[in-house]
Amino acid sequence: MRFAIGFALVWSSAAALAMPPLPRKAPEFTITEPSGKETLLSSYRGKVVVLAFVHTTCPHCQAFSMILENLYKELGPKGFQPIDVAWNPNAQQLAPMFAKALNLTFPVGYSSYDPIMDFMGFSLMDRPVVPLEVVIDRQGMIRAESPPGGDPNLQDQGKLRALIESLLSAKTSAKR
User: Fold this and answer.
1) Does domain 22-169 have CATH number 3.40.50.720?
2) Backbone angles phi, psi at 19, to 5 degrees
């Protein structure tokens, strides 16, 4: 029993150390829209982006997407851009229904497991939870992101709003 607990502690510590340091440049990522059009994450440079990797059938993802919608209505005119990327089975077909059912007015696309794990820097041993969130500043730098086990702070509307507002008010002339 002690060995199992010790192994779990070492494993979780190693997983936390494997996460790339912040801030760091956001790698390129392709978001495929339900129409088939591909949009590059870098095309949103100049905006504060919350990229959420979701499952369309996940109640936590649905609730988080509603938080993003509320923040988008308020902070979108100031330069905030949320993006949902669905990655559950049949995401291509489910993403439009997800967006319509929740009345989302921001982009909702889809991708598959491997590109998302590569973008997040997760290993094959990680078993990520959803939603996964990534907060990117106007210069394309990742300022906050979920570890594989999630981050309740990034799902808290008040804390997320404070982070977004601080990035929106930051000087845009910062070095990349």
Assistant:
1) no
2) -65, 130
